[in-house]
C-alpha cells in the first residue's frame, strides 16, 4: 500500500497465537501514545486506526481475490 511499516514478532498472547498453528496469520499493530495499550489511558491517533483498517481491508480483499 506504500505505507511505511515495521515487521516484528509479537511475544504477546493474542488471539492470533491460537490459530497460527493451523492457518497463516498476521496482526496489525496500531501505535499508541506513550506505548500504552490495553489500559484506560490507551490512545491511538484516529488516522493511524483508519490506516490499520485500510490495511486489513486490503489484505482481506487480496485473500478473497486469490481464492
Strand content: under 5%
Largest sheet: none
Structural class: mainly alpha
Question: How many helical stretches?
Answer: 2
Which series of helices and strands comes N to C?
HH
Roughly how many Å is the radius of gyration? 14 Å
How far is it from the N-terminal to the C-terminal residue, by CA?
Answer: 20 Å
Could you list the spans in which at least 5 consecutive residues all have pLDDT below 50? none
DSSP summary, beta strand count: 0
Mean pLDDT: 87
Polypeptide structure, described:
With about 70 residues, this protein is mainly α. Helices cover about 35% and strands about 0% of the residues. It contains two helices and no strands. The protein is globular. The chain starts with 15 loop residues before the first helix and ends with a helix. The model has no long low-confidence stretch (mean pLDDT about 85).
What is this structure, in a nutshell?
By secondary structure, the protein is mostly helical.
List the helices and strands and how they pair.
Blueprint: H1 16-19, H2 46-65
Keywords:
2 helices, mainly alpha
Amino acid at each position: 500500500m506504500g505505507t511505511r511499516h515495521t515487521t516484528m514478532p509479537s511475544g504477546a498472547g493474542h488471539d492470533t497465537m491460537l490459530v497460527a498453528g493451523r492457518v497463516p496469520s498476521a496482526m496489525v499493530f496500531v501505535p499508541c501514545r506513550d506505548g500504552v495499550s490495553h489500559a484506560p489511558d490507551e490512545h491511538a491517533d484516529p488516522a493511524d486506526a483508519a490506516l490499520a483498517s485500510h490495511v486489513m481491508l486490503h489484505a482481506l480483499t487480496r485473500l478473497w481475490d486469490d481464492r
